[in-house]
Amino acid sequence: MTQKHTTPDGLVIVDKPSGFTSHDVVAKMRGIARTRRVGHAGTLDPMATGVLVLGVERATKLLGHLALTEKEYLGTVRLGQNTLTDDAEGEITSSTDASKVTREAIDAGIAKLSGAIMQVPSKVSAIKIDGVRSYKRAREGEEFEIPARPVTVSSFTVYDVRDAVAEDGTPVLDLVVSVVCSSGTYIRALARDLGADLGVGGHLTALRRTRVGPYKLDSAKTLDQLQEELTVMPIAEAAEAAFPRWGVDARRARLLLNGVRLEMPDEYADAGPVAVFDPEGRFLALVELHKGKAKSLAVFA
């Protein structure tokens, strides 16, 4: 009798290569992990590299809750050129000499794009407008507007300003930046809006995501490394890293698994999703406070 292959439940932290869509990485992981049950938390543009969190088997149930978390990026913003896609993938639509832009003006522009802001996503994005992906409408030459959405940019820092000359001979400035922001923030839209504010245009030439919530680049593996050895973060460890931990006794663990809504301690009142563990350290469920009781979001035991 042949032994059935079992894929462990958990998260795989991938260092996404440039040129791959997030869906490409999911498809590749389905082959590596030998399971159809693979999903990702938070899309990364094809040009971008870095942390992409995948869920395998039952951990796919965690993903929708992980996506609502903070992200951190390192990138390069080019001032002096606009592109169709707001990044280096799209054709250049305008070029303006940016060599006279001062550091003070850059810092003032960045201050306007920091904190709680309203952002219009790039037209070449995966956002749906009336059920159709924005990038599909853009490719078909359609005229349309994307409504601005609230996002939070908790940190937007310029590490270096470099003089450069674009391929068409335009003097440009390349800014090496780091951004910490809420999920749903488009870094290329920040580049576009900074360039617009400075009157010279701007786009993103490089982007690397260094963190998604608690999951950092130092724990990420390349697809080649994962092909050699599949490294899965066990589902209990992944939940403990991402959510507040609530330990319950054996009696309450049984009640919870039988569908009884437990009273939740006050300390979890504003915590959002909470990971529940039994006395043996088994991850039982993801719950949140609803009318004073623990409402199950997903059960894992």
TrEMBL record:
EC number: 5.4.99.25
Residue positions of the active site: D45 (nucleophile)
InterPro entries: PsdUridine_synth_cat_dom_sf, PsdUridine_synth_N, PUA-like_sf, PUA_sf, tRNA_psdUridine_synth_fam2_C, tRNA_psdUridine_synth_TruB, TruB_C
UniProt keywords, alphabetically: Isomerase, tRNA processing
GO biological process, one term: tRNA pseudouridine synthesis
Catalytic activity: uridine(55) in tRNA = pseudouridine(55) in tRNA
Listed GO MF terms: RNA binding; tRNA pseudouridine(55) synthase activity
tRNA pseudouridylate synthase B C-terminal domain sequence ranges: 188-230
Domain Pseudouridine synthase II N-terminal: 31-187
Domain tRNA pseudouridine synthase II TruB subfamily 2 C-terminal: 243-300
NCBIfam families with a match to the protein in the record: TruB (TIGR00431)
Family: Belongs to the pseudouridine synthase TruB family. Type 1 subfamily.
Known function: Responsible for synthesis of pseudouridine from uracil-55 in the psi GC loop of transfer RNAs.
Protein name in UniProt: tRNA pseudouridine synthase B
Organism of provenance: Streptomyces murinus
Gene behind the chain: truB
